[in-house]
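#struct-queue
[09:14] JT: dropping the first one here, sequence first, then the structure tokens:
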Amino acid sequence: MLTLLIISLIMSFLHKCKADETPVGPVTFLEYRKSGMRHMIDYVFQQTAEGTYLLSRKEGWRDENVPQITVPASIAEELRNIAEEEHMRRYKGSYSPIGRVLDGWMWHLEIKFATGERVCSGGDNAYPDGEKGLNRLADYLENVWNTYKDAPPVSEKAASAQDNVVYLKYNRSGTVAFPLNLYIFQQDKDGSYWLINGSNCHRSEARKAKVPATLHKAILEIIEKDGIKSYQSYYEPEFQVLDGEMWSLEIKFKEGESLYSSGSNAGPSGDGLQNLSALFKRTWKEVEAKAEPYPLEN
């Protein structure tokens, strides 16, 4: 009997670890609450039926006003990453201390993923992993709140810039013959979106692939968040550089507005260009298998 019990416990543990490694989708709902006798803070993140994402923050037991803000869709992915990296799907249903505690802290965590999986856990003066994962989650939610609480709602931005970008070209080149990065995003008249990749190859070897509308939304978020519309027309270093890299960014909007910026061994502050490049690289990996030849003119 003892042998069977040990085997059962081992199998249960292995199954739990395997389940934790099963990929899950982005977070569609998350609530984290920590409370004591004199203080309470409660965060609720959720995806609405319309597809927008909301975050509310309630502080204090007497706080009847629960402000709510709209946040980017990327937050759902980041919350999923935190849950995975901190192994929150392995959390037990409840945690309690060995001895009795008459005062202290209680906490509650509920997470729902797009793939249907759910986590529900809580505790009374006891925590999983020494509270490291919960502290990381709380810090991230507080940072998101402080970042977007005074910004115009993302839903309003999306509505005012709906189908805004019809063409975007990002080109970065160095001393080699081929462009280091050459990505072109464009919208056809029928509303479909395409990504053209001419990086690290001759222009005649460029390819294109159809991409989902989520790429367009992500581009709009980067343009807004990184202040790309405020870029100067040209950037140059303080001292002359005989070698190095050059870049250019061209954007055309549906309303007729356009933007062109470029630089030689210098660029705008912030991570706008890097974020665009990383977004295009990630997207291309997802659609490359369906790409078709699309030679570019010299």
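[09:21] JT: and here's the second one, same format:
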Amino acid sequence: MRLFTGKTYTLFIIREYLRVFFICIIFIMGISYIVRALQQSEAWKAFGIGQILVIYALEAPEIVLREALLPSCMFASVFSVGILSRNREILALRSCGISTYRIILPLMVVGFVVSLLSLLAEDYLLIKSMQTRDIYLSKLSGAEQKVYLQDRENVIVFGEKGTIYRIDRYSAQSSEMSGLMVIQKDERGDVSLRIDAEKALWDGHNWVLYSGIVYNFGPGGSIEGQKMFSKLGTSLHDDPRYFSRDIRKIENMKLREGYEYIRMTRKMGLNYRSMLTKYHGRIARSVTLFLVTVIGLALGSMPVRNALVISFSMTLGFVLVFFFIIELGNTFGGSGAVPPAVGGWLGNIIFSFVSLYLLKRIRV
């Protein structure tokens, strides 16, 4: 038995779905641009039309991926299949012995492809466009270029192999520590080494310390030796990013960057649960596109009188419920009430059961 119902029907239903899908995206983008224009009208009076259009173009990936994609997938699924159901085309196919599952399968595949592409687009398109927009806005306003890694003062960092750093000031641009104290502990947890230095510079592999003194401690905390130095090469290779502060939200970092930042935050003993929950939520958001497509197809295959009204109502309802569940997941995951992974994937867990229930109700 063939997986799809036939080339002609498959191309037809995909074309109908994509037509509604892109119309919905364009409609939502238009509304979003109008709202942004009203909100930022005062701030952008100094800009020319061409400059504003460039800014809008750089904001397009964010609008599409984070505002328009979810409701568009849901609406296109319910509406396109609802029209087929209302015109009795699904009934005609079923009378030929074709199950409803096979009828909607091409659009399920399309939903899976959209889900995968959205995850890739966030990493390779959205994050880059946001950074480019920030640089462009800085140039237009004459302000300094926005820096995501900021300097820090009075920092304590727990590094690798029991190393503790106490830093008066860390400069992210030059990867330089000022007023540094390094403490290393042995396997028993006793202090074995202490280094005081005026500054430390990153050479690409390790930290090089300048103008300081090294203390070696024996059992019981007694000083066994000390040595002055003007320049000291070390085996300290804790990444410079450990010591700076990234002002971006975790969802506005690439997946690899976000993973590394959470790992460093956890290593430093800081609260990482909220960030890890949102990190999982960003990955889960792409899977949600597939789930809402399946839900929309299942709902659309049921007989309805007014496909447009029903599609809009269902889309609005599911989107509102979904965002409510996301906030619940972020709250519970960030507070530790549930594991961060559960908090981030809470919406998809619930939607998975909903989609399975609706698929079982479809009359084969």
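[09:30] RK: nice, looked through the second one.
[09:31] RK: The mean pLDDT is 83.
[09:31] JT: good to know. The chain has two domains: 7-143+276-361, 149-242.
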